[in-house]
Amino acid sequence: MEWMALWMLAFVSFWQVPLPVLLPLLLLPPSFLDIEPSFFGLIAWAEEP
């Protein structure tokens, strides 16, 4: 059940990011970001201070 809450939290955080900011991040190759090419990896990277 925890994964459901985690998914919902990530989904809400995902939509709080402005689309013009989000699109370039999605277009970047995963190797450039140096993270796992996953949805949760992108969210974790984007929310780092």
UniProtKB/TrEMBL annotation:
The keyword Transmembrane applies. It comes from the Eukaryota. The chain crosses the membrane at residues 6-28. The keyword Transmembrane helix applies. Keywords: Membrane, Transmembrane, Transmembrane helix. This is RCG37595.
